Amino acid sequence: MTSTVPALGIRTGEGSALQAVLLDMDGTLVDTEGFWWDVEVEVFASLGHTLDDSWRHVVVGGPMTRSAGFLIEATGADIGLAELTVLLNDGFEARIDHALPLMPGAARLLAELSEHEIPTALVSASHRRIIDRVLTTLGPQHFALSVAGDEVPRTKPHPDPYLAAAAGLGVDPVRCAVVEDTVTGVTAAEAAGCQVVAVPSVGPITPAARRTVVSSLEDVDLSFLHGLMTEMR
């Protein structure tokens, strides 16, 4: 899956302004936000440093360059960003090889979107190597395309990933529903002009204009997404 091949034959639900659904990955579809933190703790422990648990909210949901850079600066660890990135990706892959739990409601939502032929994209700050590994569990057939954090000039919290996904699908970002779990991701989606459904995973997210907060993906189905778009008309 790549972010450069546009989807063909796009169909949208009749009577709805919804053109596509764009989904975050870590913490939204797969229960892996904790995996990243555990790997960061282990890697820095091997370097002789202990991570402060309060830093977890700083590094969650963002690009690895930002998270890893913050942790290097905060700990003073003697390691370069490129080397640390490799260690973190390797550690994460090892963890998901053993287990990759889906968030409640994720499999049902993806199946429903596929059944109704709703154009869907996976949009993540994770690197391509990680996305492709996770897609084998999520089911690549559910996504017309995917956008990785190392494939765009600027990743979340910038709007670039969501703008790239909308362009690849040939749809208007304003007519896209985005499902995210962190403030960083929500910020990116809103900057792109999308309607956002927030399902908080680590830190709290407050409701706002064009942003609906739910407690679980179990609360999100196609009727719900169509309703959000109908309300904005």
TrEMBL record:
UniProt cross-references to CDD domains, sorted A to Z: HAD_BPGM-like
One protein family per Pfam: Hydrolase
InterPro entries associated with the record: HAD-like_sf (IPR036412), HAD-SF_hydro_IA (IPR006439), HAD_sf (IPR023214), PGP-like_dom2 (IPR023198)
One Gene Ontology MF term: hydrolase activity
UniProt keywords, alphabetically: Hydrolase
Protein name: Hydrolase
Source species: Streptomyces calvus
Organism lineage: Bacteria, Bacillati, Actinomycetota, Actinomycetes, Kitasatosporales
